[in-house]
Amino acid sequence: MKNFLAVILFTLIAFPAWGQDSYWRDRQGHPIPNTESRQSERGFGGSVLVTSDADWREKWNTPAETVPEFKEAKSLPRGKHIFVLTFFANPQLSNESSADITCDINIAKPDGSAAMNQTNTVCYKGPIKGSAYSMYLALPVIDFVGDPDDPLGKWTVRISLKDNIRKVTLPLKTSFELR
Question: Superkingdom of the source (predicted)?
Answer without folding.
Answer: Bacteria
